[in-house]
């Protein structure tokens, strides 16, 4: 999650200042500007009193928190009032005995939205957090938000790096678990916007851990790592025991850094942490920046698609993993996550630290992916077969998932053809595409 939403105090201040300048530049309006200035001051004073009464500062004596914050900063995200807190509570309330209360970061994202729905469906309390950034079409994130809202899941609009906001959320709800899926995703985009990866995947993650270690009770955290941490590893299939010190992209390096940072917070503060290495997850409501998604769009529009080959002219392959399988893995990881052992920023004993592959165990060449799409869309793709650019990509991924299978029964059941069929069905419905019609109808 990179940029904060367009509701910041500074933007409002800029708008206000330019308004004031315009008023002052007009001599005719000089007299009225004085009145306006005075009434603005009075209005600001009234607002300040209102906020103080309805949204008192989070006290360091709060049962869940052992630090203090500035209530004006936490009011910036547009929430904090009684009605807002009611919404947060309603969404986070568990409806089954022994249910968990989960903060899902990146809830308007692909995996976040699916996991939120699955948790809610079985009776767990879910609160979402998302900054709705424009890395890809935000209207898709809004549509996912609308879907979640129908299932009474509320998404707080805010950024991971907003510490007062995170503190506020933990103060309102003593989350038992955090499913941390908010991140700057995408392997190749890291060359265009490297700082966004540092901001979300490192600074944002650290901010979340800083807040999580302080609260009481500390939550157990399950978070999204990536198959890309295997980088240039040549052993196959990838096992959690293999080396992960040769990342091929900055994206991979930030996810690997996340795994090391998780170790530190587990070691010092007793936070229970589980990293999930996702392998090219796809399906309905997916990410438009991923190949299967934009191939579908481009094939339907009659545009040429780049199909990568390795430098040795071999096929590039991925262990494409269907979303429903990944959701089961995420829930399994949450269900088997032990409690954190620390409280109030102090470790009280050793805590759980885990990393799991969540893949499909069956790599498929990109050429085969295209062939399946051609069949489902009933359109011949215009393929441009080229050598994989040196932009962070890796030639091959293949997961060994025996550890996840052993610890929480993870067993992928959807092959690429079946999963893409479901994706295409969703895609044509969502975008209103007529299959079999003339190309370019999308
Ligand atoms: O498994 C993961 O950890 C990662 O999976 C994906 O990354 P990637 O596997 O590179 O997925 P795509 O960008 O959808 O690429 C899929 C395959 O298509 C190939 N490709 C991509 C783009 C293109 O124009 N042509 C092409 O042949 C890639 O080389 C790759 O083999 C996600 O984008 C990452 O966020 C995620 O962390």
TrEMBL record:
Record GO terms (molecular function): UDP-glucuronate 4-epimerase activity
Entry-linked InterPro entries: Epimerase_deHydtase (IPR001509), NAD(P)-bd_dom_sf (IPR036291)
Transmembrane spans: 35-53
Source taxon at top rank: Eukaryota
Domain spans labelled NAD-dependent epimerase/dehydratase: 102-339
Coiled coil segments of this chain: none
Enzyme Commission (EC) number: 5.1.3.6
Pfam families xref list: Epimerase
Bilayer topology term: Multi-pass membrane protein
A GO cellular-component term linked to this record: Golgi cisterna membrane
Keywords per UniProt: Isomerase, Membrane, NAD, Transmembrane, Transmembrane helix
Reaction catalyzed: UDP-alpha-D-glucuronate = UDP-alpha-D-galacturonate
Predominant location: Golgi
Subcellular location: Golgi apparatus, Golgi stack membrane
Quaternary structure note: Homodimer.
Family the UniProt entry places it in: Belongs to the NAD(P)-dependent epimerase/dehydratase family.
Protein name: UDP-glucuronate 4-epimerase
Species assigned in the record: Arachis hypogaea
